[in-house]
Amino acid sequence: MDFKVGSLDTPKPSNGDVGSLATNQVSTLKTSASSTQLCSAEATLGRHLARRLVQVGVSDVFAVPGDFNLTLLDDLIAEPGLKLIGCCNELNAGYAADGYARSRGVAACAVTFTVGGLSILNAIAGAYSENLPIICIVGGPNSNDYGTNRILHHTIGLPDFSQELRCFRTVTCYQAIVNNLEDAHEQIDTAISTALKESKPVYISVSCNLSAIPHPTFSREPVPFCLASKLSNSLGLEAAVDAAAEFLNKAVKPVMVAGPKLRVSKACTAFLELADACGYPVAVMPSAKGLMKETHPHFIGTYWGAVSTAFCAEIVESADAYIFAGPIFNDYSSVGYSLLLKKEKAIIVQPDRVVIANGPAFGCVLMKDFLPALAKKLKRNTTAYENYHRIYVPEGLPLQCDPKEPLRVNILFKHIQKMLSGDSAVIAETGDSWFNCQKLKLPEGCGYEFQMQYGSIGWSVGATLGYAQAAKDKRVIACIGDGSFQVTAQDISTMLRCEQNPIIFLINNGGYTIEVEIHDGPYNVIKNWNYTALVDSIHNGDGKCWTTKVQCEEELVEAIETATEVKKDCLCFIEIVVHKDDTSKELLEWGSRVSSANSRPPNPQ
């Protein structure tokens, strides 16, 4: 029997593992009726946890060792099919798990108590905001120390050492403190299954003295999870579809917009089915880029208010009806709350809820059920797309560079566009890369990831490590600003140890450019590093690595040719030196609007 667990339903290739990306089918976990008896050395808590990780599709655990988790790491290493990836710090281990979960559908990381847990906390918070199921495992204190009033190392020096647990409660959907063997099996299984069901991180603390002890509850190979699928209320679904169809069929020029919650709803295929059926123009919110096939004949680009793809905002905002599937409207995605949308024109489809204009609302209606059912009820209407086709003017090309002219960012991205294929994936760091990468046209099958909701600078280095480890069929192209790189640069080392071959474009413009456009100050200028020399020193002759510094278009063309041909099996680090004021026009517009939103005066009391 097949059980569908942990899969991500997006228009990208499937590798058949649990939690993998799928096209027309979800990934499945193969099960058998028998449950194998285990020898005592394998019938331990640590080995049970390791077997569960493998079962749900995790083949790599990102870890930093510490004295409280060392025995547990031994158990993880001993499990066939599970590889331990040692990271340079806990923050990067968390970011790597984030990137891994985006590709594989589930991820795991392992750190030590409190000093490791609080270090990884920021990355887990980001994963929570992005609805990524990460199993965060912490090696905890000896079980005998609970309730003793003892002061332990790696804590803040109080007899109550629950600070770490209290912190994780706000950024995980389940917390398990495993400090006795009697209920360890139940606690671990509940935590992992909850992560998959809720698509959120979970926290598992395992006492350091329990991991290697055999126990009867672990004496058999664990039976794979059978996670009950959520079901729509059939009457609510029917009513929601009828109301939405009536609303949209009355409209003259309706449009569709994909939001980031398509992924957690496993509704990407359903959204595509609706787009094929209705004939509406299709846009994506910026954080949903990569979830909708950009080669679709009615795809019109990114809807991002004043910084949208050319002609996209005009079509969306002039529509008399729009259906948003899985949107998140925050201050960043709304460009400082400046979207010209009207609630009475909108159908908002959330993962389990549908709201039609100012009402009615329908609960217990799953997006993945609603969209294909709606597709069967809508009249085909291509009016808005025909309007788009009439006003559309192809975008111009950047001005030609003079020989040896200092390189411009728009020239860089013109050449990155040519590199993309279905065998590549783009990781865009927080900053101006958000806006430049948003303009890339993704070929079918090309991956695309960035962290818009949380927006933590430095995320992309660890995410590149994790994504590349999970999606070995793709070559990752990462676009990282110099300020962000300085936060998390160390795990270039781990990429080399794992024999990964990403192409990293380090955009050196001397500071935090995105912050400059929101509010400038001397704090946005950073110390310039010799970035290629730094990566060379990390390489230290061990592994496959190639670096170069580029200052003009001729050098860029040569560097890309080398990276994609002679050095295609190497980690390629290309430092791009550009002027400090060379930014996208979209960042200039977005920055001024976000600045205005941030500086609103207090409301009168």
TrEMBL record:
A GO MF term: magnesium ion binding
Reactions accelerated catalytically: a 2-oxocarboxylate + H(+) = an aldehyde + CO2
What are its E.C. numbers?
Answer: 4.1.1.1
GO biological process terms held by the UniProt record: aromatic amino acid family catabolic process to alcohol via Ehrlich pathway; response to decreased oxygen levels; response to stress
Region annotated Disordered, chain positions = 1-21
List positions binding Mg(2+): 482, 509, 511
**Which note does the record give on the cofactor?**
Binds 1 Mg(2+) per subunit.
Q: Which UniProt keywords apply?
A: Decarboxylase, Lyase, Magnesium, Metal-binding, Thiamine pyrophosphate
> What are the required cofactors?
thiamine diphosphate; Mg(2+); a metal cation
Q: Does the keyword Cell cycle apply?
A: no
- Quaternary structure annotation from Swiss-Prot or TrEMBL: Homotetramer.
Instruction: Name the protein family.
Output: Belongs to the TPP enzyme family.
Question: Which species is the source of this protein?
Answer: Papaver somniferum (Opium poppy)
Domain Thiamine pyrophosphate enzyme N-terminal TPP-binding: start-end pairs: 44-149
| Protein name in the entry | pyruvate decarboxylase
In this chain the Thiamine pyrophosphate enzyme TPP-binding domain maps to: 452-575
Ranges where the Thiamine pyrophosphate enzyme central domain occurs: 241-358
Query: What's a single GO CC term here?
Result: cytosol
Q: Name one Pfam family in it.
A: TPP_enzyme_N
Q: Does the keyword Transmembrane apply?
A: no
